[in-house]
Design brief:
single chain, about 950 residues, alpha+beta, Beta-Lactamase, Alpha-Beta Plaits, 4 domains, 8-stranded mixed β-barrel, 6-stranded antiparallel beta sheet, 30 helices, elongated
Length: about 950
C-alpha cells in the first residue's frame, strides 16, 4: 500500500517564499523600529542641542542688553555730572531712590580717583576687583562692564567722566543678575537659576549644594525646585554637567539640566546660569512613536519600499554615477566631467528624467565653463582696471602736491575744501586752517572788483564754465604777490553742499611782471649806459621835430663818437671800454637838460637832441661837450690814453625835417670833424662838399627802398671747399642788387648807406628769409646743402633779429645745424658783449657762427677765445700774397695754430691759385674760398 502523497505535510514554495519574506519583514521591522527610535532620540538630542544653543544665544543677548543698558544709564548720569561734579552729586544723592526705582539699579557710586569714593547709593559695590576695573577704564579712557559674583551676582558698568578732555572721575552702576535669570527662564519656558562657586562658598547653609560645593544665588521657585536641583547634582559632577549637562528622573518625571558659565576670568569666583527642562513628555513620545511604527503598516511599508528599491535600482545607479561626477564641476574640471559623464545615444522613446538630468548636467558643465572663463576674464580686467585707477589716483595726488601752482577747491558757498602742498608753501597758510574758510577772504583783497566776485560766483554755481583774472594776494607773512587765477566749474550731482563745486588754480606771476617791465625798459634803453637806444631815439626825435615845426622853434641834433675808442678796447680790454662809455653817458646826462634827448646809437656813437637851441647855443654846447669829454680819464693805473670826441651838428628844421636825412647830415658832419682833427665839431652847411656825399646817400637810400619794395635783391652762392678732400663743404650766401635793366650792383656801394640810414636791418631780414627758403628748397630736393649767411655789423643792435630767426628756423624741413651765420671781426669787436650774447643765442638755436675778415684787428688773438664762434675766416689781405710774403705766411700759420688750439675751424678767403691752396693745406687750414675754388653764381651747380 503506497502512502498518499497528500498525507504528508509539505511546505510549498509560496510558503517558503512567504516564510522567507515574513522573516525578512520581521527583521526589517525590528531594524526599522530600532532605526526609528535612534532617529527620534537623535532628533531629541538635536532639538536639545538647538535649545541649548538658543539658550546660550539668549543669555548672551540678555547680557549684552544688560551691559548696554547699564552703559546708557552710566552715560546719562555722566551727562548730569559733567561740568559741575559737586552740585550734581548732591542732586544725585537726593534723587537716588527715584533713579533706583526707575532704572532698577542695585547700586551707584562716583569715584574721583580709583581709590577715592565721593558718592555711594543703594547696595555698595564692595568687590575687591573694583580698583583694578577703575584703573583699566582710566587707562583705556573707554567705558566698560564687568561681572561680579563676589557676594551676589551683579553686572557692573564703569563710565569715565571727561572734563576738558581729561578724566575727572568714574561713574559706577550695578544691577542684579536676578532679572536676567528670570527673563532667561521665561524665554526658555524652563526652570532657571544662578549658582556661584569660590572662596565665599565655604560656609554651608540652606542654599548650598554640597556635591558641587556651590551656592544658589537665584532659582525659579526655590523651595519647590531646590530638591530637584540637588537630585540632578547627585549623579553628575560639576565638570560633567558643564560638558554634557545632567539628566535625572525625579517624581516620575525626566529632567535635563544645562549649565552656562559666565565669563569672569578676572576673579576667582565662578558663576553659572542653570536651566532645567522637563523632558518627560518628549521621551514618552519617542517611546510611543517607536512602538506605533513597529506595529502599524510595517509590512506594507517595508514591502513597498522593497519593490520600489528593486525597480529603481538601475535608475539609482545612474543617479549615483551623476552624483559622483558632480564634484568635478566644483573643481572646474569641466573636460574631465564631460568625458566621464558621456553616455551612448538612446532612442527618444526610452529617454527618461535621468537622461534629461544627464544631458542637463552636460549642458550645465558647458555653461559653467563659459561662465568660469568669463568670470576669470572679468576678474583679470577688474584687477587691471583697479591697478590703473590706483595709478591714476596716485598720479592725481602727486600732481596736486607737486604742481608748481596754487590749487584750491571750493564748495558751492565759496568755502575752501582743499589746498595743495605748493599752495601751502606759497601762501604760508596750512591746509587744515584754511578748510571751511571763504576763498575770497583768504586769497583776494578787499578791493577786488565786484564784477570779478560775480564772475567767480557764476563759475561756482555753474552759470559759466571758467573765468580767468589777475589779482593781488597777501601772503600769511604780509608780503604781496600778483597771482593769475583760472576758476573752472566742477560737475557735481551730489546734494552735499560741502562737495567741491569749483577748482581754482593760481600761478605766481610776480617775476613775469617784473621781467615784462624789465623787457619793456630794455626795448627802449641801452642796457650798458641806460640811455635811449636807437629805436626809442627815433620816436623821441620825430616828436621833437614835429613840435619844432608846429611852434616854429629851432632845435639841434648832435652826433658824436669817441676818437680812437677801439684803441681803448684793444689796449685796456673791453671792461675798460664799457666803463668809459658809462662815464661818457653820465657826463652827457649832467650837461643836458631833462627835456633833451640822449641816446647811444651803437658802439661808441651817441646822439643828443636839444629841443630848443639856436646856432650860438648849439656851438657853445658842442664846445662844452668836447671840453668835458677830453677831461675824462680811464680808471686803469698803468695806461691813460687821451679821450676825445668828434661831433657832427645839424639844425632842425633848418637843415631838414626827415629823421634819416638829418642823421645822415649829422653823420657826414661828424666825419668832416674827424678830418679836421681830434676833439673837434662841425656843423653841417648846405654848401659843404659833403653835399655830394649826402646826394649819393639819398640816391642809394632810394635804390635800397625800391629794391626792398620790388624784391630786386638777389642771392649769389660761392662754394667753400674742404681742403683735405677737395670736396665742397658749404656755400657762402652773397648779396647783390638788380638795377632793373639786367645789371647787378655789388654790395659795397649800398651796404654802407643802408647801415647809416637804418635800412640794413630790413636787408638782413630779407637775406635771412630768402636764404632759409633756399635751404628748405635744397632739403626738399634731397641735396642737403650747408649755407653760410652774412650778417651786417648793425645786426648786433637789432632787437627783432632773434624772434625772426626763431620763427624761420621752426619751419618744417629746416635743419639749423646746416646753417652758418657770419659776422665781421670789426663789428664784433665794436660791441663785444652784445656780439657774444648774440652768438650764444644763435648757437642755442642749433646754428653755427663764423668770424669774417679775421686778423685785421690789433689784438685778434686776445678776444678770439671770448667769442663763441665755430669758424674763423682769415682775411683775404693775408692770403692774396701768401706765396710771396713771408710775414703773411708766419701770421697765417700762427693764426691757424691758435684757432685749432681753441677748437675753431679756419677758412681762408681769396684763394686764387693752386700754390696758395697747397700751402694752406700744409698749414692745416680747414677750408678754402676763392675764384680758384669757384666764383659766386646766382645758382648752385650740381
Amino acid at each position: 500500500m503506497r502512502n498518499n502523497p497528500n498525507s504528508a505535510v509539505k511546505l510549498s514554495l509560496k510558503w517558503k517564499v512567504g516564510l522567507i519574506v515574513s522573516c525578512v519583514l520581521i527583521l526589517f521591522g525590528l531594524l526599522m523600529s530600532w532605526f526609528t527610535q535612534r532617529t527620534l532620540e537623535k532628533q531629541f538630542q538635536d532639538n536639545l542641542s538647538q535649545n541649548w544653543s538658543r539658550n546660550e544665544q539668549q543669555l548672551q543677548t540678555l547680557l549684552k542688553y544688560e551691559r548696554e543698558y547699564l552703559l546708557r544709564i552710566g552715560d546719562a548720569i555722566n551727562t548730569q555730572i559733567n561740568g559741575n561734579v559737586k552740585n550734581r552729586l548732591q542732586e544725585l544723592d537726593q534723587s537716588w531712590s527715584t533713579l533706583q526705582f526707575e532704572w532698577n539699579l542695585n547700586g551707584l557710586q562716583f569715584h574721583a580717583r580709583p581709590e577715592e569714593e565721593l558718592f555711594s547709593g543703594g547696595s555698595r559695590i564692595s568687590s575687591k576687583n573694583l580698583p583694578m576695573w577703575l584703573d583699566k577704564v582710566h587707562t583705556s579712557e573707554q567705558p566698560a562692564t564687568f561681572l561680579d559674583c563676589h557676594s551676589t551676582c551683579q553686572i557692573i558698568a564703569v563710565i569715565p567722566v571727561l572734563e576738558d578732555l581729561d578724566i575727572s572721575g568714574f561713574v559706577v552702576v550695578s544691577r542684579s543678575m536676578a532679572d536676567l535669570v528670570i527673563g532667561l527662564g521665561h524665554s526658555s519656558n524652563a526652570i532657571a537659576g544662578l549658582i556661584t562657586s569660590g572662596e565665599n562658598n565655604t560656609k554651608i547653609d540652606r542654599k548650598t549644594i554640597p556635591n558641587w560645593k556651590v551656592k544658589i544665588a537665584a532659582l525659579t521657585s526655590l523651595e519647590r525646585n531646590q530638591p530637584l536641583l540637588i537630585n540632578l547634582t547627585e549623579t553628575t559632577s560639576l565638570a560633567e554637567a558643564l560638558d554634557n549637562g545632567a539628566h535625572s528622573r525625579f517624581n516620575d518625571k525626566d529632567y535635563i539640566l544645562q549649565l552656562l558659565p559666565l565669563n569672569q576670568s578676572e576673579q576667582p569666583q565662578q558663576a553659572y546660569i542653570l536651566i532645567i527642562q522637563d523632558v518627560t513628555e518628549a521621551l514618552l513620545n519617542i517611546r510611543n512613536i517607536t512602538n506605533t511604527s513597529l506595529l502599524s503598516g510595517l509590512s506594507a511599508l517595508l514591502l513597498s519600499l522593497f519593490f520600489i528599491l528593486l525597480l529603481l535600482r538601475p535608475a539609482l545607479a545612474r543617479l549615483q554615477n551623476i552624483a559622483n561626477k558632480l564634484p568635478l564641476l566644483a573643481d572646474s574640471e569641466f573636460d574631465e566631467f564631460k568625458k566621464r559623464l558621456h553616455q551612448p545615444t538612446r532612442p527618444n522613446s526610452t529617454i527618461d528624467e535621468i537622461d534629461v538630468l544627464n544631458d542637463t548636467a552636460l549642458a550645465l558643465a558647458g555653461k559653467l565653463e563659459t561662465l568660469n572663463d568669463a568670470v576669470n576674464e572679468h576678474a583679470h580686467r577688474l584687477v587691471q582696471r583697479s591697478s590703473e585707477l590706483a595709478q591714476e589716483r596716485d598720479f592725481v595726488n602727486q600732481l596736486l602736491n607737486t604742481a608748481q601752482a596754487i590749487i584750491v577747491t571750493q564748495d558751492i558757498n565759496g568755502r575752501v575744501r582743499l589746498l595743495n602742498s605748493h599752495g601751502e608753501s606759497i601762501s604760508g597758510y596750512e591746509e587744515e586752517k584754511t578748510i571751511g574758510q571763504l576763498f575770497r577772504e583768504l586769497f583776494l583783497t578787499p578791493h577786488t572788483l565786484s564784477s570779478t566776485l560775480l564772475a567767480i560766483e557764476a563759475v561756482r554755481r555753474g552759470g559759466r564754465d571758467s573765468f580767468r583774472h589777475e589779482a593781488d594776494f597777501y601772503h600769511a607773512d604780509g608780503s604781496l604777490s600778483s597771482i593769475s587765477w583760472i576758476h573752472t566749474h566742477l560737475q557735481n550731482n551730489s546734494d552735499d553742499e560741502e562737495a567741491a563745486a569749483m577748482i581754482s588754480i593760481g600761478l605766481n606771476i610776480s617775476e613775469r611782471i617784473e621781467a615784462e617791465q624789465r623787457l619793456a625798459w630794455l626795448a627802449d634803453h641801452d642796457p650798458l649806459t641806460s640811455l635811449y637806444n636807437r629805436r626809442r631815439f627815433h620816436g623821441e626825435f620825430k616828436s621833437a621835430i614835429d613840435v619844432a615845426k608846429r611852434y616854429k622853434r629851432s632845435g639841434a641834433l648832435l652826433v658824436l663818437d669817441l676818437d680812437e675808442f677801439k684803441l681803448v678796447n684793444e689796449t685796456l680790454g673791453h671792461h675798460a671800454g664799457d666803463k668809459l662809455l658809462n662815464r661818457v653817458a653820465e657826463k652827457l646826462r649832467s650837461l643836458t637838460n631833462p627835456s633833451d634827448i640822449i641816446s647811444r646809437l651803437g658802439g661808441d656813437e651817441f646822439a643828443i637832441v636839444l629841443r630848443e637851441a639856436d646856432i650860438a647855443e648849439t656851438q657853445a654846447f658842442a664846445d662844452t661837450i668836447i671840453e668835458h669829454i677830453t677831461a675824462l680819464e680811464t680808471d686803469e693805473n698803468q695806461y691813460h690814453p687821451t679821450i676825445s670826441t668828434s661831433i657832427g651838428v645839424v639844425l632842425f628844421p633848418a637843415h631838414g625835417e626827415d629823421i634819416n636825412e638829418l642823421l645822415s647830415y649829422a653823420d657826414l658832419a661828424m666825419y668832416q670833424a674827424k678830418e679836421m682833427g681830434k676833439g673837434c665839431w662841425h656843423m653841417f652847411q648846405a654848401g659843404d662838399k659833403t653835399r655830394e656825399r649826402v646826394q649819393k646817400r639819398v640816391f642809394w637810400k632810394e635804390r635800397i627802398e625800391h629794391a626792398l619794395k620790388k624784391d630786386l635783391f638777389q642771392l649769389y652762392f660761392q662754394p667753400i671747399m674742404k681742403i683735405n678732400n677737395h670736396r665742397i663743404s658749404h656755400y657762402e650766401v652773397l648779396l647783390r642788387m638788380q638795377d632793373g635793366e639786367g645789371g647787378v650792383f655789388p654790395p659795397g656801394p649800398f651796404i654802407e648807406v643802408a647801415e647809416q640810414t637804418g635800412l640794413i636791418h630790413a636787408i638782413d631780414h630779407w637775406v635771412i628769409k630768402k636764404a632759409i627758403e633756399h635751404h628748405i628748397e635744397f632739403n626738399n630736393e634731397g641735396r642737403g646743402i650747408n649755407l653760410s649767411i652774412n650778417l651786417s655789423g648793425r645786426v648786433i643792435n637789432d632787437d627783432d633779429l632773434l624772434p625772426l630767426l626763431k620763427s624761420h628756423l621752426s619751419q618744417d624741413s629746416v635743419i639749423p645745424n646746416n646753417i652758418i651765420f657770419e659776422l665781421t671781426e670789426t663789428s664784433a669787436v665794436a660791441d663785444l658783449a652784445s656780439a657774444e650774447l648774440l652768438m650764444n643765442e644763435v648757437r642755442a638755436l642749433g646754428c653755427h657762427f663764423a668770424l669774417d675778415d679775421f686778423g685785421v684787428g690789433f689784438s685778434s688773438f686776445a678776444y678770439l677765445k671770448q667769442l663763441p664762434v665755430d669758424y674763423v675766416k682769415i682775411d683775404g689781405s693775408f692770403i692774396r700774397q701768401l706765396a710771396d710774403n713771408h710775414d703773411d705766411q708766419l701770421f697765417v700759420k700762427a693764426l691757424t695754430d691758435v684757432a685749432k688750439g681753441m677748437g675753431k675751424k679756419t677758412i681762408a678767403e681769396f684763394v686764387e691759385d693752386g700754390v696758395t691752396l697747397k700751402m694752406l693745406d700744409e698749414y692745416g687750414v680747414d677750408f678754402a674760398q676763392g675764384y680758384f675754388v669757384g666764383k659766386p653764381l646766382p645758382h648752385i651747380l650740381g
